[in-house]
Design a protein that fits this description.
Elements (H helix, E strand, L loop, with lengths): L2 H14 L47 H13 L1 H22 L4 E12 L14 E15 L4 H67 L5 H36 L33 H22 L4 E12 L11 E10 L7 H67 L5 H35 L9
Antiparallel strand pairs: 1-2, 2-3, 3-4
């Protein structure tokens, strides 16, 4: 076998040899002392059976307009585009790091033409002073990953890539939750506007009746002025509600990337309540949260970086080889007589660096401890958010029932006071007070409906998008 072929074959064989050692600790998921189930496990209401909620969770609100808004946001939002670009960057970095595990092969070709002096210390004796040289060589180099430095670097890069993907999922979950919450707020404001406009028509009718009674000498001017104040105040409230509705629509326009967004009117009472989780939700559902997964992958990356730093304390072993031809004539450069080759083994052993490499190991270890603490904090925060969401869903459901009773009682009181005023048994101030109480009670009921729906959004987000029948 030719010497050059032997060198290249030996280089390829070395590339296939497995590493003898792998420096640094292997990753093991930390064990946290969390309760087995979440608290408030009695959240499932008696009138609503626990149903499995599967992704996409926002479709459970059964609103085509909302579904379209979330789809547009996930496609056009700038935060999503940034997150996707970061995934592409991480993928490219992973390919770059992984390429170090394979030999690097280069082709080098050169040609030169020069003239040397005829008056130098070494006479040419009639030789041609014009010199030509042509070279073509194939070079290969390979670092033996004897200590696992390159494999640990790839492990870290792979974890960073996974973390970037989970970061994108976190952005998508937060974005969809923000779109749904703003949409629910917009529908709540529309319901409040509709209610207030109905109340304003009632007050205007009462104002017209009071003026007629004043003309007939039955009522006083005080009743008229009081009715005018009540109508003006309610009209001003409607103006403010319309302003808030426009602001909510503008926010949705930015989130969806449709700056000319215009939504048709709707009613929040038409939106169904999403399914509630069953009792005894296990705490391991937190593993489905993308932010928790992202924190864990960041911990995996930092854990692998310790191995990279420790491997740098040991010798770096590399193989090099070249094979090609060199000739004074371009036509002879590929002939056997012009053949050139070389092979080498390199070893770089750090002897004295004033503790610089050891300091890098300490830095990597400290960074791993920081990431571990951040991961633990993310798990604890996620557990708290789920518990808070479960409590909020339950309490808002109870609050809505109570406010509904209050609204119905206020409506009955308004009807009675209006009839008593028309019959001459009550003063007009009683009617105004009943109108105010009913309007406040009805507005509070609509807002409680909004709060209950938004609490369900927070629960979906806290659980990473929902839950399954089988945990």
């Amino acid at each position: 076998m030719k010497p050059g072929i032997k060198i290249i074959g030996g280089l390829l064989l070395a590339a296939l040899l497995p590493g003898c050692m792998l420096m640094g600790p292997d990753y093991q998921r930390p064990a946290f002392s969390l309760p087995a189930i979440f608290s408030s496990d009695d959240v499932a209401a008696a009138d609503q059976a626990p149903i499995s909620a599967e992704s996409p969770w926002w479709e459970l609100y059964q609103d085509p307009v909302l579904n379209n808004l979330v789809a547009q946001a996930l496609e056009n939002n700038t935060d999503i585009k940034i997150a996707v670009a970061r995934i592409e960057e991480a993928d490219a970095f992973l390919r770059e790091v992984g390429a170090a595990l394979f030999p690097q092969v280069d082709l080098d070709a050169a040609g030169s033409r020069s003239r040397i002096t005829q008056r130098g210390a070494n006479p040419l004796n009639g030789a041609n002073p014009i010199r030509e040289n042509y070279t073509i060589r194939l070079g290969a180099s390979y670092e033996l990953d004897f200590w696992g430095k390159l494999r640990r670097a790839k492990e870290s890069a792979r974890a960073q890539t996974m973390a970037s993907r989970y970061a994108r999922d976190t952005v998508a979950l937060s974005l969809s939750g923000l779109v749904v919450s703003n949409y629910l707020q917009l529908r709540s404001l529309e319901s409040q506007i509709t209610l207030s406009e109905d109340s304003l028509r009632t007050r205007d009718e009462s104002l017209a009746l009071t003026r007629k009674r004043l003309e007939g000498g039955v009522s006083s001017a005080l009743d008229v002025y009081q009715a005018e104040v009540a109508s003006s105040n309610l009209a001003a409230q409607i103006v403010e509600l319309k302003r808030l509705r426009a602001v909510s629509q503008h926010q949705l326009a930015v989130l969806t990337g449709k700056l000319d967004l215009s939504l048709p009117a709707g009613d929040i009472s038409q939106l169904p309540l999403p399914p509630l989780p069953p009792a005894g939700l296990p705490s391991n559902l937190l593993e489905a949260r993308p932010d928790v997964r992202q924190a864990e992958q960041e911990l995996v990356a930092q854990n692998a970086n310790i191995g990279v730093a420790k491997a740098a304390l040991f010798p770096t072993i590399s193989l090099t080889a070249t094979y090609g031809g060199e000739s004074a004539e371009l036509s002879d450069v590929l002939k056997s007589a012009a053949r050139i080759w070389s092979g080498g083994l390199g070893l770089n052993l750090p002897i004295f660096n004033a503790g610089r490499l050891s300091a890098r190991v300490d830095q990597a270890t400290a960074q791993q401890k920081q990431t571990l603490a951040a991961y633990e904090a993310s798990v604890r925060t996620a557990f708290q958010e789920v518990n808070d969401a479960l409590v909020t869903v339950r309490q808002n459901a109870e609050r809505e029932v109570l406010l509904d009773s209050s609204r119905q009682a206020a409506k009955k009181a308004l009807d009675i006071s209006d009839n008593r005023y028309k019959s001459g048994y009550s003063a007009y101030i009683d009617v105004l007070d009943s109108q105010r109480v009913y309007n406040d009670a009805a507005i509070a009921y609509i807002q409680s409906r909004q709060a209950r729906l938004i609490a369900s959004v927070d629960l979906f987000k806290a659980l990473g998008g929902g839950w399954q029948d089988q945990y």
